[in-house]
Design a protein that fits this description.
alpha+beta, 2,3-Dihydroxybiphenyl 1,2-Dioxygenase, domain 1, globular, four-stranded mixed beta sheet, single chain
């Protein structure tokens, strides 16, 4: 099916964001462990934050990280920290971030050293489609967000 063009269509993806309990810990994982580059790290204070987020908050710490190849990853720390337990991978509303890595074993070990936990018992080899033969593994970041490491780069 061909894509339909609409005047209000999204011209580009700006960023993807996740909420973390401890931004410094998350920065160590994503910057030092995964290799993303910090674009900015600031505190936002405004009464409109509650209107925007639907949460009773007037202050957020926000870090934007650049990913190699494009894209921005946003980390948000609310004043009272993140609340609740991580959601199971099959739960609606749950997401994950997937990144290409050159060495799956080395990248996994590095992220475990920065507070990640391994979800996959072992790497899985993709059996079909354009990524057949590639290997991948799921981990959780220090706050429980799912991170998929995928041998790459790019489609074959």
């Amino acid at each position: 099916m061909a894509a339909v063009s609409h005047p209000e269509a999204c011209p580009a993806l700006f960023h993807v964001g996740i909420t973390v309990a401890d931004l410094d810990r998350a920065l160590a994982f994503y910057r030092d462990g995964l290799g993303l580059t910090v674009q900015s790290d600031r505190v936002a204070e405004s009464p409109t934050l509650a209107t925007l987020t639907g949460v009773s908050v007037t202050r957020l710490r926000i870090a934007l990280l650049d990913a190699p190849g494009g894209g921005v990853f946003e980390l948000l720390q609310y004043d009272d920290g993140a609340m609740g337990e991580p959601l199971p991978a099959s739960r609606a509303g749950t997401g994950h971030v997937c990144v290409f890595v050159d060495d799956l074993g080395e990248a996994t070990a590095r992220l475990l050293a920065f507070g990640g936990t391994q979800v996959s018992a072992e790497p899985v080899t993709v059996s079909g489609g354009e990524y057949a033969g590639r290997r991948c593994v799921y981990l959780r970041d220090p706050d429980g967000y799912l991170v998929e490491l995928f041998t790459g780069p790019g489609p074959r």
